Amino acid sequence: MKIWKQNLLFLMLLVLSMILAACGGTSETSQSASNSAADGSSEQTNSDSWKPEKPIEVIAPAGAGGGWDTTARTVAKVLEEEKIIDKRMAVVNKPGGGGAVGWAYVDSKKGDNHTLFVTSPPILFVPLNGQSDLGHEDFTPIAGVIADYAAFVVKADSPYDTMNDLVDALKEDPKSVSVAGVSAPGSMDHMQFVKAVKAGGVDVKQLKYVSAQDGGGMTMLLGGKVDVYSTGLAEAVEQARAGKVKVLAITAPERLEGETISEFPTLKEQGIDDEFIVWRGFMGPADMDPAAVKYYEQAIKDMMETETWKEQRDNFGWTDNFMSSEEFKSFLDSEYKIMDELMEEIGL
């Protein structure tokens, strides 16, 4: 009887110890899950943890119709139509200062996860030529999107039929031809033209460049106020299809495919050994939530896989050039050094 009682007591103690051990394990598991959620090591990705709560303002730091404006409106349109982002994406033009006015506006939005802006080489050029205190390091890289090219256009009735015709005139008298662009002197529209004609043997320090920062460069050309317009390929395509301008050259390494754009000759095929890639991407204000950055980065990446985007891309003659936020930052740092050397070389 005594032995039976001892065995029963032992059995009860054994069961009790097993129950306590199980409770302890459950507590440890719960604590582990809690810690995982706190340090972000759960399976849920950062891009799933943030979504826009209100309409998104997309800044095009130039007037309507140019490369920044076209890119901003096309990307916003596809993101909305494909329902990749379910909030309104309102494109707002803020021209002036070769982009500096728009950048100042975005700079005032530090920490705002609902403001983006489209960017390209002027974010490097303009600070280098002293026209803005703000540069690429003052903003948050989101993603690289496309590679575009420059186009040099004249009126349909211009005496210049080829880029060589224009280069010859500039060699004879660099001040005899006026060239317009929507960016400031020393910025992209100016520099892409300078780089091209320098390769053709022109004295670039005497060029007559007119800045149409209100976005009226094409209007100035068509109105006969300037002889040449240095612009992006997308704007040139529209007017060339309408028969209003002649495209003397584009800065692509080889001819592009597509309706109308396949007719545009390159600099290289005219004996001018030069090319210029107009990359474009998106940035946001400083101090954005990293989760918001991941959200927009992934949204842009998903958009570029859609047929709607591919149709628009081909229509404008763009080339996909996706870069993640981290890749975009590294690219910008590298390009800044290259542009710094180029501007020093040509005396600007």
UniProtKB/TrEMBL annotation:
<protein>
    <submittedName>
        <fullName>Tripartite tricarboxylate transporter substrate binding protein</fullName>
    </submittedName>
</protein>
<feature type="signal peptide">
    <location>
        <begin position="1"/>
        <end position="21"/>
    </location>
</feature>
<feature type="compositionally biased region" description="Polar residues">
    <location>
        <begin position="30"/>
        <end position="49"/>
    </location>
</feature>
<dbReference type="InterPro" id="IPR042100">
    <property type="entry name" value="Bug_dom1"/>
</dbReference>
<feature type="region of interest" description="Disordered">
    <location>
        <begin position="30"/>
        <end position="53"/>
    </location>
</feature>
<dbReference type="InterPro" id="IPR005064">
    <property type="entry name" value="BUG"/>
</dbReference>
<keyword id="KW-0732">Signal</keyword>
<dbReference type="Pfam" id="PF03401">
    <property type="entry name" value="TctC"/>
</dbReference>
<comment type="similarity">
    <text>Belongs to the UPF0065 (bug) family.</text>
</comment>
